[in-house]
Amino acid sequence: MIEDKVMSKAEELNKRGIIFIQKKQGDEALKYFNRAIEADPNFKDAYYNKALVNLALEQVDKAIETIDNVLIKDPNEGEAYFEKGNIFFYYKNDVKAAVELYNKAMYFGIKNEAIYYNMAQCMEATGEREDAIKWLDRVIIIDNKSVEAMMKKAEILIDMRRYEDAINCYDGILRIQADNEGAYHFKAVLLGETNKVEQAFETLKSAEEILGKRELLEFDKCLLYEKEKDLEKALNCINSGIEIDDKNILYLSKKASLLILLQKIEEAKKVYDYMIEIAPEEMESYFSKASLLMLNKEYEEAFKLYETIIEKSDEENPYRINSYYYKALCLKSGNKLEEAKEAYEEAVGKYNLLIVKYPYDHQLHLLKANSLRDEEKYAEAEELYEYILDLNKNLAEVYLMRAKNRLGLGKENEARQDLKMALEMNEAFKKVIDLDEELSKLLA
């Protein structure tokens, strides 16, 4: 007959502490873990549990001190190095210290999926992606059904643009979990990105047969149809997604953009109105509708929306910051020139204040430069565009804006060069240029 093991006093106190963790009463839990340590200073579980509560109470340095007490008693305790490494990685954001501690933990015998996975994350954080994959492969060797490791490996492979290898990872995941929606999603996206559209549709069809209709998968189909320039089918898919969740702002926004491409402007306006109704605190919907009204030359209504954004949002909200400029542009486009002049001056003043706080934010400088350009202060604007490009020469939008400014300075050749540079970086700007009579003439 096997006798029940008698629980020691330290174990009993530790067990009580765990009960208080489950009750989310951290201070009470600490009391019992401390008593467990007093009862048996070599009872390591109490130290680890105490450190866990320290972290829950945001006492990070105390958690490290608690783990150090284990190492003082036993410098060869691998688990303690592992736990301390986790604190440095997840709470201190000190990757170098975490790697050193994980290496010590492995030296003293900790060799499992958890430490290999964490090493992979450390390698990824330091840009050592090949090494990260090697550590994840170790996880998968130990547990060939570790979906978490496979998903992380695929994510890193995507960052490395090794799309075929990533697709193989997702295939492996689907052999283990045939109902993994994320794997279907990412595989379909990658197939679409690599112009294997038919295979992408087949992947989504397989997903639907197992999972039924899912809003994410409908969104994926929408993007594929949009890529194929079949906007009506794209719209049907996004509508199917919205039927599942009619308050999904991302999907509603996509629907509005498709309606605009289909020249269904009034319907798009109604979608934006609905978005504003269900999420009145989200400024993106106001801004998107205002942009549409600007394109449709409904300047007064657009102006009201920019005013609303400025009134309702925080000072550093990006939509508010942009609205200073576009509010002035509305007035200028509506031929309210005196009011526009005041609005541009106000916008420049606002941007000056923000630039003091964020001197390297190119978007602030660009908005200020555009405001100066629209006021026909071409020389000042030119100097600012140059400064922005000195900060970062890879901003296609800035070349486009500077081209417009250079026309004001009578520098047609330089403007033409800027347009060519913008198009080299982003071919999509061709549509913008075609809509501008002055700019389109430069490329004729």
Topology:
Blueprint: H1 9-22, H2 26-39, H3 44-56, H4 60-73, H5 78-90, H6 95-107, H7 113-125, H8 129-142, H9 147-159, H10 163-176, H11 181-193, H12 197-211, H13 215-227, H14 231-244, H15 249-261, H16 265-278, H17 283-295, H18 299-312, H19 318-333, H20 337-357, H21 362-374, H22 378-391, H23 396-408, H24 412-425, H25 429-435, H26 437-442
Helix pairs in contact: 1-2, 1-3, 2-3, 3-4, 4-5, 5-6, 6-7, 7-8, 8-9, 9-10, 10-11, 11-12, 11-13, 12-13, 13-14, 14-15, 15-16, 16-17, 17-18, 17-19, 18-19, 19-20, 19-21, 20-21, 21-22, 22-23, 23-24
Keywords: Repeat, TPR repeat
Protein name: TPR-repeat-containing protein
TPR repeats: 10-43, 44-77
Largest sheet: none
CATH architecture descriptor name of one domain: Alpha Horseshoe
CATH first level of one domain: Mainly Alpha
Stated plainly, the CATH topology of one domain is called Serine Threonine Protein Phosphatase 5, Tetratricopeptide repeat
Gross morphology is globular
Our Rg estimate from Cα atoms comes to 29 Å
Distance between the termini: 97 Å
Secondary-structure element series:
HHHHHHHHHHHHHHHHHHHHHHHHHH
In terms of DSSP E residues, the strand content is under 5%
Can you count the beta strands? Answer: 0
Give the overall average pLDDT: 95
InterPro entries: TPR-like_helical_dom_sf, TPR_rpt, Ycf3/AcsC/BcsC/TPR_MFPF
Pfam families: ANAPC3, TPR_16, TPR_19
Protein name: TPR-repeat-containing protein
Keywords: Repeat, TPR repeat
